[in-house]
Amino acid sequence: MSNHNHAALSKFLSYILRHQPASIGLQLDGQGWAAIDELLRCAAQHGTALSHELLLQIVAESDKQRFAISADGLFIRANQGHSLPVELELTAQTPPASLFHGTASRFLAAILQQGLQKGQRQHVHLTADASTALAVGQRYGSPVLLRIDTTAMCAQGATFYLTANGVWLTDEVAPKFLAVQPW
Question: Would you identify the CATH topology of the domain 98-180?
Answer without folding.
Answer: ADP-ribosylation fold (3.20.170)
